[in-house]
């Protein structure tokens, strides 16, 4: 018999289900990063496509955040998650068999859009979780998300080197199908009342942004922090190639494994947010991020980079988990839309940080990159000490 989650019968979220949802989140998000370490290999076969595949995948992800993730507030999320994973598998197969730039671009956009299934899973887990456990639950899922982001580049680099770039996408197809079947089998049904119109659903996000100061604070804070995170990972290969290091791309990939230490922060931050309040944990996170960039600024040594990347990932995860804890408490019926606003704002910050990071690197070097991100981190700190304002009831539903 299919399980369901009606409003008057709370669902008991088992730990095994939380871990399965965390794994599915990592599997989904990994697909938008597989291409990055393979671009040089792809360029030998499809030179024009190689320069487009990464940005159009990111574009697809942005479109999915705005157009698909809000559907979680309208329709059965169990079926949405299953459907998006199936589309993701089909898009990956199309990408693996693509023989032209047009096919590569189209398939990459579709991969990016359907990979936003990760952002369907996270608010669904928050919805299923008891309020006193919500922070820990979101923290576990964010561990899966960060693991997918960090390990995807390392895995893709090794697979592409040994088997070719198409092999990575072929391998990803059955993985996505397995995630689809697993989620459909173990997730409870998510009954919804008669849905509002899609245009009204999308338009309501403007009211959510306007009426919830805590949403704006959380989203802007995470955008500033993620700008630094993206700038670091964009510039790192160029920094490591400098004469004082002399390392190749494979060493830059290994930093992703080092950054996995930051995965440990997510569940710890979630539990701390449950017991001590998420605002305090956000403040800890932004100060840790600021400390990591201060370390990068005063010491450009290998040991400083290793310690700094651990601090950076730890701080980012602590702030992100706690900020999501805050926004999911604002309006339970609008969690998918709240997540869309939060993640889209963060994604914009990350894209800006990546673009500005490489520009500043080319014109000023590592010292200027650290100065730029320290300034952004200070802004994130200042946001935490703005006076709290009363929330308005937006009537966004």
Automatic annotation (TrEMBL):
UniProt KW ATP-binding keyword: no
The Swiss-Prot or TrEMBL record annotates one GO molecular function as: transmembrane transporter activity
Domain named Major facilitator superfamily (MFS) profile: residues = 1-388
Annotated keywords: Membrane, Transmembrane, Transmembrane helix
Q: Which Gene3D superfamilies match?
A: MFS general substrate transporter like domains
Q: Does the keyword Transmembrane helix apply?
A: yes
Q: Which CDD domains match?
A: MFS_NepI_like (cd17324)
Task: Give TM regions.
Answer: 16-34, 46-68, 80-98, 138-161, 167-187, 219-241, 247-268, 341-360, 366-385
Top-level division of the source organism's lineage:
Bacteria
Among PANTHER family, the record links this protein to: MAJOR FACILITATOR SUPERFAMILY (MFS) PROFILE DOMAIN-CONTAINING PROTEIN (PTHR42910:SF1), TRANSPORTER SCO4007-RELATED (PTHR42910)
- What is the protein name stated in its UniProt record? MFS transporter
Q: Which organism is it from?
A: Thalassospira mesophila
